[in-house]
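Quiz preparation item.
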């Protein structure tokens, strides 16, 4: 299993980490997997928008760092409510796709959600056609609930992890 460390955005990211994050959103392939067009806004505005979103209080974001402390991507819990949150992850180092880094980062974010935030459920949505992401989420302990309408006539796979399932050993 790959070694991953999560670094809370509130601890501050280095300029190099911010630039890697920004460049990922400009990448057409990564933008496609996120359901967006490649980012056009300038770096300074991107950074300001991300920090403003984090200051709202209903989300927490982490940099995903590898065993050497190098940037791999980001994972966040957002729409945080009393008992649930939504998870999002973006592995921006495409050379590391399919190697287990994303699944490990998701496991750690879920552990944080259940242990530190005291949540009961974490859910996520990914494109129905994104079987690689669905497999990675299943590997981390999420279960497919069903398919729900998404923008542009697409369907999303709705996946859920409960604290009870996590305690049974899938994520603990």
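Solution:
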């Amino acid at each position: 299993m790959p070694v991953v460390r999560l670094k809370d955005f509130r601890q501050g990211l280095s300029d190099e980490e911010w630039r890697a994050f920004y460049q990922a959103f400009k990448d057409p392939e990564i933008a496609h997997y996120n359901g967006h067009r490649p980012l056009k806004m300038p770096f300074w505005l991107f950074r300001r928008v991300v920090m403003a979103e984090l200051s709202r209080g209903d989300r927490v974001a982490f940099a995903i760092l590898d065993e050497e402390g190098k940037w791999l991507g980001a994972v966040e819990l957002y729409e945080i409510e009393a008992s649930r949150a939504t998870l999002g992850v973006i592995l921006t180092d495409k050379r590391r796709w399919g190697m287990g880094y994303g699944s490990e980062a998701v496991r750690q974010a879920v552990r944080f959600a259940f242990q530190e935030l005291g949540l009961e459920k974490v859910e996520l949505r990914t494109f129905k056609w994104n079987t690689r992401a669905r497999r990675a989420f299943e590997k981390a302990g999420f279960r497919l609930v069903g398919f729900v309408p998404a923008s542009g006539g697409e369907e999303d796979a709705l996946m859920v992890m409960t604290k009870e399932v996590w305690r049974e050993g899938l994520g603990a």
